[in-house]
Every structure is written in structure tokens, then in C-alpha cells.
Amino acid sequence: MTVERAQVISRKCWRCKEPTGGPVCSSCATIQPPVPGADLYGLLGLPRRYFFEVSALEKAYRALSRKVHPDRFARKPAVERRMSLQWTASINEARRVLKDPIRRARYLATGLADAPEEGGPVLEPDFLEQVFELQMMAKADPAATAAEASSLRAGVWSAVESALRAWEADAGTLDGIPSLLARLKYIDNIVSLAASADQD
Amino acid sequence: MANIGIDLGTTHSLVAAIMGGKARCMLDDDERALLPSAIRYAPDGALESVGYDALARSGEGGGHTFTSVKRFMGRAPQDVAGEAALFHYKLADDERVVRFQVGEKQITPVEISAEVLRQLAERAEECLMGKPTGAVITVPAYFDDAQRQATRDAARLADLEVLRLLNEPTAAALAYGLQQNSDGVKVAVYDLGGGTFDISILELSDGVFQVLSTAGDTHLGGDDFDQALAAVLLKQAGLADPDGLNFRRAVRAAEQAKRDLTDSEEATIAVDLGGQRVEAGIDRASFEALIGPIVERTGAACRRALSDAGLSPGEVDEVVLVGGSTRVPLVRRYVEALFGKPPHTDLDPDRVVALGAAMQADILSGTSELADDLLLLDVIPLSLGLEIMGGVVERLIPRCSTIPANASQKFTTHTDGQTSVDIHILQGERELVGDNRSLGRFKLSGLPPLPAGLPRIRVEFLVDADGLLRVSAREEFTGTEASIEVQPSYGLSEDEIEQMLEDAIDNAETDVDERLLIEARVEAEQVLTALEKALAMDDELLQSNESDVISQVATALREAITVADRKRIADLTHKLDEVSAPFAQRRIERDLTLALSGRDAEDVAGQLGM
What we know:
A: mainly alpha; B: six-stranded mixed beta sheet; globular
């Protein structure tokens, strides 16, 4: 089973030395330093899954924001204000990544929120040829290009989702995801190309 | 002591605080909440007056009144040249900082705004019977980093501790929001002020007021309505190229007509322009035809904000109007048509932002009950990015990201032994560097000399809760902390602000002296005018050599006024009062005798000001 509960890191408060029980010490209300490179799911206290209700994420995010936001520490010492700022920036980033279906899939598969600049997966020549042809026809026939691109996109996206579903059921890996997402990026470029050609 | 909330507006400003458990605007001695954001300087650049007086005298010569200075805050001189010409403000020759030339002096928009803030802080100090601890100052949601920084600098010059820069529509939503309890409510705040337009879409859930998106135009507002109508008046007066005085007179007349047209179908305008009397009538329909295109410019921003929030107009539950310009009936109809529902207008659109700022100030006090119920989450209005090879912008933090937000980027060197790297930061949505707003250049220096490509410099960008950018850097290969030098592209640098603060302390005494000098001159002139009038009317009441003595002292006083010697002016004014006292006494006695023969003594005494 790869789906695991977010690990609750048990730490001691840097000020009162009691166990913290969360980002803000339950004994002395001092904010704790954020853990560098923490897992985005762990930050929000969510189970590491792909399929979930966005409303559950938003609820967890709001509850945590109310605890760590700089507004709560405006009159506290600078060191606590800085921690609060870092905490809030991290959970804002976690929410941004996990809310977005593509970023979330990439994060689960690679641990990265955004596609790497270089050294991405190598795509099959057949696919690249298909993309090239669509690109060529985008200007002349934007409507047909858009239609073909979206049907191509639907196919790729359903492959992404079935891989994720299999992974959650412990019946597959996420190894194919980076290459599927790279395809998606090509296709989305064509969709926007067709859209702008349509506007001209 | 309490925290205060300040709405630093284009045309007027307010200060509010929680008093008696409720957010209230503080009033001046004449029970007015609004302070016109108008500052008047004497021809030599000395500060003359702030607020109503400065505004009332904007159409007079012998000094210079600045209004709508917010439009110039944090902007590049070349970007505001047209606007400065429109307002007839003379810009000093400077490529980086907007400076207005007044006589020999150069005055920045930051310093002018600081005077407005100082005035409000004084009012707060009187109302609260003590210096306020800290202030929340509102800014248009669509203000970029440089504009926010300029606002913060103005507060520093005014000796105010800024607890938070709060977006105006968010403040307004806060003021309204407490009256609603339902979860998942989506609110659109349409904020059309004197010179800025903002639209923000917010959602309220679990006591968190979250901004979903924001858009706007920092150069669009009621000022533009006034100027459109003023242009018509000036044309009628045959003034194709009006001077500053005539321009300001026309604008003031237009503004009055705009106000009249809110409740009446027709307004009449009578104003002296270029030596002739212009009288005109305008009906609401013609006014609306004139301003229609300006109002429609708000539509594009509204559609963008909706699309960034992923909502259709019908999905917005509530629409709130903020800003004095939303009193214009055409604006109300336009908003109603755009969102398909009537907007809320329960709170005074002029005051709602200040009230929300006071609430946030209270939340930040750490002792507020509000703080347990409510949290505001705002967004960054414009994307932040870096210049990469080929003059292209790489976006680091996209627009409408919830703040605080962070991003990091790795850099390396291109030549062997290179010890510094230049980084150019931009804000905006366009692809090319030149089309975006340049915020500043950062120089990372103190890198260890290593072969090209080996250093790994990690630069962290953090946008704080004020929407202001902070940058830090570290070379990871050797673990050296790289130092960062910030040179803002436009606006005042940290050193310049420090210098101004020092000057302010040095000049505090001179400033007080200057103010007292102005007061002494005004008083002297009043005494002289009154005396001249009396002499012209009743010179037969003068005795023996009285006339010579009076005229001697009067001449000395007239001379003294031209010299900046306050003590001499005050002494001579006093002396003149003394030597002319018997003459004044005789006039009063004469008038009383005359009056008693025919009229009620009390009545006459009243007329004589006794």
C-alpha cells in the first residue's frame, strides 16, 4: 500500500521544550520552525493520494492558515514573525501545487511541482510527428486543430488518471506519468496556438 | 494605545480606529471625516497648508497646490510625464525619481503623501489622546511593488509604524463581511476611487476571507470624469492650452457639476476661465455620454478578475461598491448590468475602506476578539519574474498567488573566477522585459572565485503579507552567504529615504519656524489691510502726528514681511496695533454714538465684532 497517512512529526518546542503537537506549540503558543523540504501533503496534514475532494484540501488549508498566518504574530518577536512568514508561504505553495491536477500528478510522480527546464523525458518520434503536423495546420484551420488537439488531450489525460488510479489501488507505478505529462504540455501549447490563431 | 487604519486616497484620505467596540472614522475640528489629499506650497517651496484650505486655494496664484499625488507614487518619471503635464505639475530633471519643482525646491510625491499622513496621525493623536501605536495603510490592490514601497516610505517619513499595507477592496470587504455569516459566499468588490480602479473577487469560508483574484487600473477614476468635463468647459472658454490655474478652476467646477448630477437631472456651471465667465448647463444624459467610455474601461478588468477566479458573473453572490466615484448613477447601472444583480451600497463608499483598515489594525493588535473570528488572505496582483537570456521574462510568482508567497531560482556564473551576478526583477504579465515594470536590479556579490558554471547560487524571493518583495541569496557550493545590493529602478532608494529622515530631524526646527513665519506674515497682512481700509474711510479721526507714526510703522512692517524674520514681523504687527489703537478706539466710539441715536446698541456691537 503506497497511500500512507501524513507522518506527524513529533518534535519539541524550541522555546518551552514541551512536545509541540503541531506548527504552533500547544503548551506556549510559540510558532515552530518549518521543516525544510517538507512533504507538501504532510504540510497540510493530508493523506498522500491523488483523488480527493478539493473542499477537503481547502478546509485543511484554511484551518492551518488561521494558525500560522503573520496576522497572528504581528506583535511577536522578529524570529517568530519570520517563521510565520515561512510557514504561510510554504502552505500557500502546497495548496497551489496540490489543487492543480497536473502539478499534483507531477508532484506525486517526481516530487517536483513544475516540469524540469531540461532533461525531461524523451518522447516517441510518432507523437512528435503528430504534434508537428497539428502545429502546421493550426494557422490555416484553427477550429479543426483545436478539435483534434482536445481529443488527443482527452486520451493522454485518461491514461494519466488510470495510472494514478492503479497506483492508489497498489496495482501499478507512477513511472509513466512524467512522459504523459510532457505530451500534455505539447498538446496544450497547440491548443493555445489554435486559440490565438482563431482570434487573429 | 490603539492602532489606526488609514485610507490614503487620491482625492481624499481618512483615519479610523476601533472606538467603543466599533470601527469609526475620526473627525476634524469641523466634524469632517474626509481630509482632501491636497497640499499647498508657497512659491519658495515652504509648506503652507494641508487639506481643505490647500484645496480651496488650488485655483489661486502665489503658491502651488498639489492634488492626486497618489497617481505619481512609485512611478517612473517618463511614465508620468503626460500626467504631470495634464495636472500642470513641473517635473524636475531626473530619470529615476519623480520630483516636482516648486521654486528652488524639489518635492517628491512620497514627501507630499507624508504630509497627508502626518495630518491624519495628528488627528488620531488628538482623538485617542495619545500617539497611535501602529497603522494599517490601504493601497489599491493593483499597486505594484514600487507603488507599495513608495507608500511605505511616506509612512516612514511621517513617523508612522506600518503594521500592514492592506488592499483597499479587501479592507472594504472586511468592513462589509462581518455582517454576513454564510459560508462559501463569493463577493465582488468594485472600487472606483478618485484616481484608481480595483476589482477584487473574494470568498468567505470558515472565517477566512480569501481573495481569489484581483485586477484593476491604477490610473482610472473620478478624476478622469472631472477632466473630461473640464476639457469641454475650457474649449467653450476658447482655452486650447490652459495654464495651471485655469485648468484647476475648470476641474473644480466640473467636479461640482458631477456631484450635482448624482441627485439632479441637470447641473449648472458658472466659472471664470481666462478672464471670462463661462456659464453652462449640462444634463445627466450628456454627462453620461461623456464619461461612458471611461466607465467601460473598468469592464475589461472585471472580466479578467472573474476569469482568474474561475467564476462567471452569475456565480458572484454579492457585489459591493467602494469609492466616491461609485455614487455616479451610470457607474451603478454599469456594475448592476455587469454582474446581473444590484450592488450593496449600505456603507458610505467614502468611509468603508478606512473602516476596514481600522478592523485589520485591531486584528493585528494581538489583543482583538476579531482576530479569533477572522483572517484575511490576499493575493499578489501582478506576476513577478526575472530577466533571462534574450530579454525574455521568466515568471517566478504568478499573479493572484496567495501571499505570503515564495519561489527560488538557481543561478551560476558564465566566466571563470566571476565573483558577482546581476539579476533584474520585473513585474507584469508580458513576455518581453521592456513591456513589464522594472522593479530593480540586484547584484549578488562576494561569490568565491570558481570555474564558470560551478557556483550554485540559490536566490529566494519572498513576497510578504504587504505584497512587498524580499530577496535573499546563498552560494550552495561553498555555503557563502551572498550579499545583495538593491537598486530600485524607479523611486527612492533606501539611502535616499534615510537621508530624508535625517533631514526631517535636522529640519524639524526649521519647519516649525517656517510655519510660524507664514502665520506671522498672514496676520501682519490682515492687520495692514484692515488699517488701510479704516484710514481710507475715516482719516478725519486722526489726531496731530498720529498719521505719521502709523504710516512709519506700517511701512516698516511691509518691509519686514518681505524678509524672513518672524520676530520682527510679530513685533511690528504688535507695535502697529498699539500705535493705531487710539484711532481704532475713536472709530468704535463714533460708530456707537451714531448707532445709538437710531439703532439697538447690541445690534451695533454685534456688527462691530464686540
